[in-house]
Specification:
Pfam families: fn3, I-set, THB. By secondary structure, the chain is mainly beta. It is built from nine helices and 88 strands.
Length: about 1150
Amino acid sequence: MWLVIKKRSRVPGVMITQYVEQLPKGKSAPDITRKPVSLTINEGKMAIFRTVVTGDPTPTVTWRRNNGDLTDPEKYHAKYDDRTGENILEIPNVSVDEADTYKCFATNEFGKATCNVILNVTEGKNTATQNQGLEMDFRKMTVSKKKPPPKKEGEVDPQFWELLLSADRKDYERICLEHGFTDFRFMLKKLNQLKKEREEEQAKYVENITNLKPIEIKRDGRAEFEFDMELKDPNSNIFLFKDGEMIDYGKDNEMKHNMTKMDKRYTFSIKDLEPEDAGLYQVDVENTNIFSTELKIPPVEFLVEMKDVKAVEGEDSVFDCTLSCPLPSITWMRNSTCLEAGTKYDIIVSEDQLKHKLVVKSTKALDKGTYTALAGIRSSSASLIVEDDSGQDKHSKRRGGKTDRSGDRNTNLDKEAQEHQAKMQKVKDDKESARSAREGKGTGGAAVVASGTGREGRPGGHGNDSALSSGMNHGAHFARGLSDVSALIGQPAEMVCMLSNEKCNGVWYKDGKKLKPTDGVVVTKDGRYCKLTIKNCKESDSGKYRFETDGGKTEAVLNVRDPPKFDSKDLGKFSEPAMVRAGENAIFKMCFAGRKPLKVQWYKDGDELLDDPNIKVETTSTHSCLLLSKCQRKDSGEIKIKIKNEFGTTEALSKLLVLDKPTPPQGPVEVIESSAKCIEIKWRQPKDDGGSPVTHYILERQQVGRSCWKHLEEIPGKPTYKDTDVDHGRKYCYRIRAKSAEGVSEMMETEDIMAGTKAFPNSPAAPKVVSAFKDCINLSWTAPTNSGGSYILGYHLEKRKKGSNVWTSINPVDEPIKDKKYAVSDVVEGTEYEFRVTAVSASGPGEPSAPSHLVVARDPTNIKKTKEENFKVIRVGNTVRINVTFTASPFPDIIWLKDGVPVSKRVTISNTEGTSQLLIPTSERSDTGIYTVIVKNLFGQETISFDIRVTDDPKSPGPVTLEQNVPGTVTLSWASSPDESLDNRLHYMVCVRDTSKRGWQTLADRLFNNKFTVTNITPGHEYQFRVYAKNDIGFSEPSKSLLINNVLITIKFQTPPTFLVPLKMHSAPQGYECHMSCAVRGNPVPHVTWYHNNISLNTNTNYYITNTCGVCSMVILRVGPSDNGEYKVIAENPLGRAECSAMLTLRGKYLTQKRHLHCLPV
């Protein structure tokens, strides 16, 4: 059986499954370091997925798809590029049939790595692929969302708790009503518990998380949710899940799902919303859930779209529409501005919540424009045209405005809605026919598709796209408006909007003036997308841009940012370190550009530089200069200029290096050799070399007693010198200076050094007494602080008696002690001694140390271990005798205690030289306790304890009674022994004898209670039982023996069915075998039936079912999608029935849900 360890990769969306617990050295499980990118391409083009994998041994890469296989070599080409190390899957001439979720697997012997990638195929642009595009639209309409497994009765949906954990308190009631939960008190209690658990888990990775905003659909067709979060580790992985499945996200709005981060603010967005995007979205940091929110997209369509309205100034204008399903409210907008009911607008909803109206009161010329109704992700737009209240057609215009609010309009809406529903039903029927025809091999499918839809999948007749569009086009509107854009000066900027009809054109305006294409401004149109590109943004390009088409318009603001910046050449020069000599001036100059006003600050080693006598800062609109006058060595460090304006901050770093002469060499000077012919000395290098390395040392010498100094020589940078021009017995003094390229340091002068005189070591510290005995004293000491420049050969140890002035050598002078400890054995018992030690080097012995403390040669106080046990059991009335042997000098004080209190007068204590005895002539139970003897004198103390227990043979327990509650078992109970309260170590032993046999058998021992259950009782046999009381002395007499046949015991072997081993949950890969088993017991033998989703399987030949001695097994020979679901086993006999169930899921295809296993006796 393999060990499976699942973990996430560092790459989001990649899951690693490891087969071994510990990888061999140098080996690794597979990983996908660069995952394939999801694609959205047109029909007929080539789709290419590229991935890079790692692992040792090299993993094998395979590809699969959710719906279908990749075995056709003409459609799917899998290869490996040696040059780039990429594994590639190519799908040439892609069609809508290839639109699917593809999976990449990297496997080796230690595990596998998997990731998913989505291929979306859009409709082709040419006429040749039109029918294929129409067919794709039908297929999209027939795809339904995968339903989650049904919730067990009585269970709470896990998503319910996930939503509550991330919701505001004001939303609790709404969420409870949506999930049918009514026990609010239990909900709050459970929710508080879950919040504490989540906070503990989040504390591992997150400092704090606040301002959680649930997901909401924006006006531009995107859905967003956001929160503030501070991570403990900024490198922690952030994962996004939808309905439990990990999904990829981008960071620059290049993917469908994106994440942006501003300071601590995390914003997740979903663009180009589709009904399939609805679900539960969750954000995890590593393996901890941070936030959950549910996106609900109502499956609503506009049965009757809005229509253009012409109104006379001063009259009311009405826009209305009809939805396919009820909605309590929709969003009304005018030129990208949200409208609300008030003095200007009325919003009316019908009782069935299908018809929605917007009334513009007292229409004015300013009210003209494009009005949009948003329902879920669907929108409908129309234009309002306002005419002056004058002219010949005044009466007719007023009448037209009033008609929009009459009942005739509602009648027309109902009629149009019914017609539209009929058309949608026809489209649905035609779609089913088309799919059926496409699955066959005839040619009728194409004809059905062509007659059912137009170019955009709208209901129509047999005409082409242009004819259908002209019949359906009620005026263009914006499917997605402009968004505000922020761009850097000198960088390109784009503004894009999307129209509902690709045949509409429009005009771009900037600050109310019409834009014309120039070299720097490019206007392009790609289908329904209209784009304005500014190639090189200038400050003058900032402003409000507007795009107008057919009376509708959308606006956005371009903000050209000009943060501070440095010229690259100037920055390169500034970054080079500046080197000056001490006393000179240092100048730093930096040119910059950026939007005014600019704030310029200079820093040195993180501290801001302000004007003072030695610091001067001059700043103009284009550059800033820092002058540091009379620099000293301490002024060296990091120089930073920081420039800030409203758009950002920029910094530049440099270094200042002030060169100076080195500091003096460091002492103390070490005398390496001092003989009659030479003096060799050594010193330490200067603490600061002044920024330049020391090249030479300059030495001078003076003979003590003379006034002149003799220049010796300049030696290279090694800090040692050997002077051979010396006279024996004379003293010399040396001056040493360090020299570098910047100059010569101050001098360092040595102490007087004599030529020919040996350097002796200092005296060691006084010896310490480690331990003392009557025949031996152990000493230790430390080495001298100064060895005199010579190697220490050993130590000479001396002793003297108290009151004497004579020191006696312990070791021979020519045999020094190598170690820094010694055991002195030449001592007399009872005599006080003190010791001193002298270090011996190559030059000879140094000064002796100070004397040690006085120490007496005698044994320390000690209690000898005897053969007597520390625990004794004494029978009541016998003698208690405890002997203790010890060694101590002088004779110690001896104290006996019982349980920490001095012993009573009944106890006799006898003390002799080296021995102490405790005697109790006639013991009683009260003498039980812990006896402690303390032996102490001036030099210490020792203790030893004995546990004495005085007791007697226990009395037998009381009569035994029998009780039978379970067939095949008998429960014995008896009265306590009278000695149980007197002896806390008393316990019981139970014995049994079958009357057909002679011997007694022990059933249980060391029982500290008065009850015992005997199992495996054979019906029809006679048994005798005895119970003994036991303690540390021995056994009691047995309790009165009872015959079990004296009590009539009726044992019934018939039992209802019960499951000994229930079914277990299974997760099997598709195409493999799956084994299920359970164990059931019952008498009579129960009848066992297997069910799959409440359908009996006993007669199904696709399942192999066996029942051997109560072990029920079922084998699914080849697991397929239809085998997923709940499996149940029901066992029945005349006494009852029991059932057991478990879930089987297909691995890799279905979402992982919490599955419940239960066994239910009936």
